[in-house]
TrEMBL record:
Domain of life of the native organism: Bacteria
Keyword Signal listed: yes
The keyword Signal is assigned to this record: yes
Family annotation (PROSITE patterns): PROKAR_LIPOPROTEIN
Protein's name according to its UniProt entry: Lipoprotein
Entry keyword set: Signal
Signal sequence coordinates: 1-18
Length: 143
């Protein structure tokens, strides 16, 4: 009986985390959707996507954003108006450590120099701060 409750608790946590990952988010400065125009049964949205292109996943994200904006769970007809790629401003932020060499990704720093990040692993910090270099802005209408 105790194992059953543990299993149920764990499954609720997993389902909750999965649901949080798949819900469309309002635009937060990097990714998300913005409502450009809206009527009772249609809307024009701009969705900013980051990461790898996955047509099935992107179509689901666009569909869920329409459902959230229009307030119904029916399947909408999506019409892509435009797709633009823009440079990610978060990826262009300069590092506060090391020396940048021209326009390359190479930076030189002394590993044993005491600084603000001395207690952290350099590679782990770089991996956590990684950002895609481009963002895709998809303008579309759903009806």
């Amino acid at each position: 009986m105790k194992k059953t409750f543990q299993f149920l608790g764990l499954s609720f946590i997993v389902v909750g985390l999965a649901a949080c990952q798949s819900t469309p988010q309002q635009y937060n400065g990097q990714v998300g959707y913005r409502v450009e125009s809206q009527t009772a049964d249609s809307a024009t949205l701009a969705y900013t996507l980051a990461g790898r292109q996955n047509q099935d996943l992107d179509a689901k994200k666009l569909q869920r954003a329409c459902q959230k904006v229009l307030g119904t769970n029916k399947a909408f007809k999506l019409q892509i108006l435009s797709v633009n790629e823009v440079a990610n401003p978060a990826a262009m932020a300069s590092d506060s450590y090391g020396r940048q060499i021209g326009n390359s990704r190479t930076s030189i720093g002394l590993s044993n120099t005491p600084d603000l990040h001395n207690g952290e692993d350099y590679a782990t910090r770089q991996a956590l701060e990684a950002r895609p270099s481009t963002l895709r802005i998809v303008r579309y209408s759903c009806s």
